[in-house]
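Design job #97: recover the sequence.
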């Protein structure tokens, strides 16, 4: 089985619609794919309706969190999307995305970038607006060569010159809410230092003690040494070790199935979940 547990669609900051994403996942030879848009479940219905024969969909979301001033992301799998506490927090984060993005556009304009909010909103479309949409506009203007080049201290990386904070969950609260909604919590790319500051490794142990289920180990932003360290940490802490592409369509260079999750780990995630079940066509 080939299992990719971290992808994005146009419901947040990917370039494939949810229907395109599941079709492309099947074409890429995947058996299981998780749709984990940022702080939203808006793409799930379309993905389920378009699910090709032979492909299983894991519903999920990637939740925006912050610990001691450091941003991090928590993957939530197979939770009940109607559970009120987690639904309320997702809504708070989504509602803050527009003023936050407008604030970054304003800061970029102060720095001499002729970006407009109208163009960023057009790029985002019906999706949950985020920094990749701003970065795409910067690429169009020739300010940076690639979307990744915008995520630097010079521009919109965490604590970059044009960075603006948004409402984010405490990760311990995120774990509690995910578990309370019958879901499974996995810390996304926890040591992706190229993205900016990461929480200390001691925080992973503390989150494990608070109910964290796993850590994303095999990811494009983890080098080989980091993966080995994370795998050992997961083993020592009794955490599941996952792998995934973090696919965003044409907005990033990663490919569907570039990194995958062991079938036994996937089976354990499905077994632990009580809020929802994987969907097969």
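Job complete. Output follows.
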């Amino acid at each position: 089985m080939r299992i990719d547990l971290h992808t994005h669609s146009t419901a947040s900051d990917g370039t494939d619609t949810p229907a395109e994403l599941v079709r492309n996942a099947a074409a890429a030879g995947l058996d299981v794919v998780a749709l984990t848009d940022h702080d939203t479940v808006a793409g799930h219905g379309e993905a389920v309706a378009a699910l090709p024969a032979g492909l299983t969909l894991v519903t999920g979301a990637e939740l925006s969190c912050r610990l001691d001033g450091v941003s991090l992301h928590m993957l939530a799998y197979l939770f009940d999307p109607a559970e009120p506490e987690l639904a309320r927090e997702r809504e708070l984060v989504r509602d803050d995305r527009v003023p936050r993005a407008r604030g970054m556009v304003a800061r970029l304009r102060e720095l001499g970038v002729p970006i407009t909010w109208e163009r960023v909103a057009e790029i985002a479309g019906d999706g949950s607006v985020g920094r990749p949409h701003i970065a795409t506009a910067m690429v169009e203007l020739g300010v940076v060569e690639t979307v990744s080049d915008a995520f630097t201290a010079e521009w919109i990386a965490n604590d970059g010159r044009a960075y603006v904070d948004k409402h984010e969950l405490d990760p311990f609260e995120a774990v509690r809410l995910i578990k309370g909604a019958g879901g499974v919590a996995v810390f996304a790319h926890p040591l992706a230092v190229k993205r900016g500051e990461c929480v200390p490794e001691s925080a992973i142990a503390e989150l494990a003690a608070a109910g964290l289920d796993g850590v994303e180990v095999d990811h494009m932003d983890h080098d080989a040494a980091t993966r080995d360290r994370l795998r050992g940490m997961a083993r020592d802490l009794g955490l599941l070790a996952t792998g995934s592409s973090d696919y965003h369509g044409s907005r990033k260079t990663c490919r569907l199935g570039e990194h995958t999750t062991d079938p036994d780990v996937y089976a354990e995630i499905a077994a632990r979940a009580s809020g929802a079940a994987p969907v097969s066509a």
